[in-house]
Specification:
Protein name: LRC43 protein
InterPro entries: Leu-rich_rpt, Leu-rich_rpt_typical-subtyp, LRR_dom_sf
Number of helices: 7
CATH topology of the largest domain: Leucine-rich repeat, LRR (right-handed beta-alpha superhelix)
Helix content: 10-25%
Keywords: Leucine-rich repeat, Repeat
Shape: extended
CATH superfamily of the largest domain: Ribonuclease Inhibitor
Strand content: 5-15%
Strand order of the largest sheet: 1-2-3-4-5-6-7-8
Radius of gyration: 29 Å
Order of helices and strands: HHHHEEEEEHEHEEH
Largest sheet: 8 strands, mixed
CATH architecture of the largest domain: Alpha-Beta Horseshoe
Length: 327
């Protein structure tokens, strides 16, 4: 589940271990009679006492933070960790009480669980009341229940999963969601188009549906046209992107769109395709693919045929070949 992966991720960050958290390396700075507010970083404490603590073998906050920031340090995070991971670790040095136990639920605004084999988006996420960004790419999620998503969510990235149906996601979708990433999934059934409307996503600005199996361009556009705030759309990698008038039809059908398939839509392109949306007869549900094979090596050549005498019992060897193209 996402919750299990989340706690494992926190354990990996070592927020309670040196140089983070509380320990012999900084305990005096957070002593109750050094700071009137327990958990604050000793502000207002006697400078002489702080200096004495450092002399007794404790580390200064600056030195501890430097151990986290120096990429050659054994306590440095791997390069694939997010900036928020680094921020949490530095908070665990400066204000360790804020990232201890359930306190972290109140400060976490972004959660990135990528390639961890997650299959379930469970109710444990609802504890993250302030969560605005949830990235769950490259997992094994086939079904996601919107009731388990924090209501404050603005970014939901589900790229490279196994989502084939949006019904559960659209039961109680986060009302403020601005980006929905569904690229590299298993969507494409005509019944899914109805879930891509403003009725479910009134504030959607960016939508990624790339590399799925959408084929009905007219049907999909008729639903997407209700997304009045949509500015960024990615549809490349779907069969409908092979239609010759694909880009022009979308540019003219969605006049508020700014970027299509990572390419900016300029005034010249708007003018060039003006009126194409009123000519659906130009959209043909077929495409032509021409493949040229230059040379094949490493297979027997069947052209030289052995001339067998009539009645010969010598074995005849037959070769057959099949070339398969996957799109």
């Amino acid at each position: 589940s996402v919750s299990a992966a989340f706690w494992e991720h926190l354990r990996h960050l070592g927020l309670q271990d040196f140089p983070c958290g509380l320990g012999s390396w900084n305990k005096s700075r957070f002593d109750a009679h050094l700071s009137p507010c327990r958990g604050q970083s000793g502000l207002g404490a006697d400078p002489a006492r702080q200096e004495e603590a450092v002399l007794l073998g404790e580390e200064s906050p600056e030195a501890l933070v430097e151990l986290l920031r120096d990429r050659h340090s054994p306590w440095a995070l791997p390069p694939d960790c997010s900036p928020q991971d680094q921020h949490l670790r530095e908070m665990a040095v400066l204000v360790p009480k804020l990232v201890c136990g359930s306190n972290i639920f109140q400060i976490l605004r972004s959660l990135r669980i990528v390639g961890k084999g997650v299959e379930e988006v469970d109710r444990g996420l609802l504890q993250l009341h302030q969560l605005e960004e949830l990235i769950l790419s490259a997992n094994q999620i086939s079904r996601i229940t919107s009731a388990n998503l924090p209501r404050a969510l603005k970014v939901l990235e589900l790229c490279c999963n196994a989502v084939a149906d949006l019904q559960d996601l659209c039961t109680q979708p986060p009302p403020e969601l601005q980006h929905l990433g569904l690229g590299y999934n298993r969507l494409g059934s005509p019944s899914q188009d109805k879930y891509l409307t403003a009725a479910f996503w009134p504030n959607l600005v960016s939508l990624d549906l790339s590399f799925n199996n959408f084929m009905d361009l007219l049907g999909l556009v008729s639903q997407l046209s209700s997304l009045q705030k949509l500015r960024v759309l990615v549809l490349q990698g779907n069969p409908l992107a092979l239609i010759p008038t694909y880009r022009g039809f979308l540019v003219d059908s969605l006049p508020k769109l700014s970027i299509l398939d990572d390419i900016h839509i300029g005034p010249d392109e708007r003018h060039q395709f003006h009126g194409l949306a009123r000519q659906p007869e130009l959209i043909r549900s077929e495409a032509r693919v021409v493949v040229s094979i230059g040379e094949i090596k490493g297979v027997p050549d069947p052209s030289p045929r052995q001339q067998l005498e009539v009645g010969s019992k010598a074995p005849i060897i037959t070769y057959s070949y099949c070339v398969t193209y996957e799109f």
